[in-house]
Design a protein that fits this description.
The protein is α/β, with parallel strands linked by helices. Helix content is about 35%, strand content about 20%. The chain folds into 2 domains: about 25-60 and about 345-435, Aspartate Aminotransferase, domain 1 (Alpha-Beta Complex), CATH 3.90.1150.10; about 65-340, 3-Layer(aba) Sandwich (Aspartate Aminotransferase, domain 2). The strands form 5 sheets. Strands 4-14-13-12-9-5-6 form a 7-stranded mixed β-sheet, with helices on both faces. The chain has a 4-stranded mixed β-sheet with strand order 1-2-3-17. Helix 3 (about 65-75) packs antiparallel against helix 10, helix 4 packs parallel to helix 10 (about 325-340) and helix 7 runs parallel beside helix 8 (about 235-250). It contains 13 helices and 18 strands. The chain has helices at about 1-10, 55, 65-75, 90-100, 115-130, 155, 195-215, 235-250, 300-310, 325-340, 345-360, 390-395, 420-435, and strands at about 25-30, 35-40, 45-50, 105-110, 140-145, 175-180, 185-190, 190-195, 215-220, 225, 235, 255, 280-285, 295-300, 370-375, 375-380, 400, 410. Its cofactor is pyridoxal 5'-phosphate. Belongs to the class-III pyridoxal-phosphate-dependent aminotransferase family. BioA subfamily. Pathway: Cofactor biosynthesis; biotin biosynthesis; 7,8-diaminononanoate from 8-amino-7-oxononanoate (SAM route): step 1/1.
């Protein structure tokens, strides 16, 4: 069955960041709890712990009864209606819950199809805000080197311009301003600690850059504290706090992209809490529906919304066909309820402690440059690029599904992962690195 499915797929389907004739994917035959049932092109079958939460989204695992029930119950009423001129209970309830959970002051919600689209909406909103304030010349954005915000065109423009995946489109994406990566931080005694001199120097660059370009800039956009696809870089909360201060002092908005970091992944409900700041605009996605359906949201402050409402257009110029899809909203409400009732703080703290122990042995391997843990995120950084097919297969042979990139083998396991699951993830990653890279 796996051989046939993989053969039919090859040359027919594009997969993320892969050629049509690239390495054959693994076929999924089932998923339950934290486990994936996979088959390889050679006929080998695997039962593996999903160390990736399906790209960081399936925080409650697979086939969760509460999420299944929410999906089926809503399908029994209606699966979709247009959001233009209409509203429905799942959308209103989800918006109310998001506002209640979000950092203080984020009082208004726009639902989008995906994380990348929510970033597009956030950037568009920032430009419309500056226009509404009588500053139409402010159309650029200040972003961070090493950042990643999605694959659509405006989102691409604020991704890393050199080392990012989108450097192939220099003539098609808008030119933005960039700051160096903020200084790295490590978790020590429950606090993220960085070199004070490095932080001060970075803040100086921030202040100088904004001082020179503030009349061109609409907003500063960041992944708070943890840069994901750009390198799993953990940075100093003081840098984020400085970005908040400098944005406010210069009439810029602060956009926090919490698509990967939101809903507890870093040990805080939202990663901006590490710096004690509230953004003007926040994007969330991925874990929002527990990995069941694609849905994202952009939240903004009352002050930003008031400017839009008071402008000649009076509206935010965006409106997806599947905006606020009732199925997705219903499942998202159930997912947020699970986060609260299952005690995400305890889950993430237990996973973090387990990953710190489970990944520590990898630090002794010659190929490993560093390992780090923040919340329910564990990263093993190699000194050279990962042999992705070989490491993936080796990890599967030890019962773990990982998807490395660049020189990183990382894990963001489901919150329901047991201590045994976390130990297996650590052992599988260690064995795969040792087997492939020595």
């Amino acid at each position: 069955m796996s051989r046939d499915l993989i053969s039919r797929d090859r040359g027919l389907l594009w997969h993320p960041y892969a050629p049509l004739d690239g390495d054959a994917p693994y076929a999924v035959h089932g998923a339950s709890g934290t486990r994936l049932s996979l088959g390889a092109a050679d006929g080998t079958q695997f039962e593996a712990v999903d160390a990736m939460s399906s790209w960081w989204s399936a925080v409650h695992g697979y086939r969760h009864p509460a999420l299944d029930r929410a999906l089926l119950d809503q399908a029994g009423r209606f699966s979709h209606v247009m959001f233009g001129g209409l509203t429905h209970e799942p959308a209103v309830q989800l918006a109310e819950r998001l506002v209640a959970l979000a950092p203080e002051g984020l009082d208004h919600v726009f639902f989008a199809d995906s994380g990348s689209v929510s970033v597009e909406v956030a950037l568009k909103l920032a430009v419309q805000y500056q226009q509404g304030c009588g500053r139409p010349e402010r159309t650029q954005f200040l972003a961070l080197r090493g950042g990643y915000h999605g694959d659509t065109f405006a989102a691409m423009s604020v991704c890393d311009p050199v080392d990012g995946m989108h450097a192939a489109f220099p003539s098609l994406v808008a030119r933005q301003r960039f700051l160096p990566r903020p200084p790295a931080a490590r978790l020590v005694g429950g606090e993220l600690v960085a070199d004070p001199a490095e932080v001060a120097a970075w803040i100086g660059i921030l202040e100088e850059t904004v001082g020179r370009h503030r009349d061109e800039l609409a907003a500063i956009i960041v992944e708070p504290v943890l840069q994901g696809a750009g390198g799993m870089h953990v940075y100093a909360p003081a840098a984020l706090a400085a970005a908040r201060r400098v944005a406010s002092e210069n009439g810029l908005l602060l956009i926090c992209d919490e698509i990967a970091t939101g809903f507890g992944r870093t040990g805080k409900l939202f990663a901006s809490e590490w710096a004690g700041v509230a953004p003007d605009i926040m994007c969330v996605g991925k874990a929002l529906t527990g990995g069941y359906l694609t849905l994202a949201a952009m939240l903004c402050s009352a002050g930003v919304a008031a400017v839009i409402t008071g402008s000649p257009l009076r509206t935010l110029l965006h409106g997806p066909t599947f905006m606020a899809n009732p199925l997705a909203c219903a499942v998202a409400c159930a997912s947020l309820e699970l986060l609260a009732s299952a005690g995400w703080q305890e889950q993430v703290a237990r996973i973090g402690a387990g990953l710190a122990d489970a990944l520590a042995p990898a630090a002794g391997l010659a190929a490993v440059r560093d390992f780090r843990v923040l919340g329910a995120v564990g990263v093993v950084e190699l000194s050279a690029p990962v042999n992705v097919p070989a490491v993936t297969r080796a990890a599967l042979e030890h019962g773990v599904w990982v998807r490395p990139f660049r020189n990183l083998i990382y894990t963001m396991p489901p919150y329901i992962s047991t201590s045994q699951d976390i130990a297996a993830i650590g052992a599988g990653i260690h064995a795969a690195v040792a087997q492939v890279h020595g």
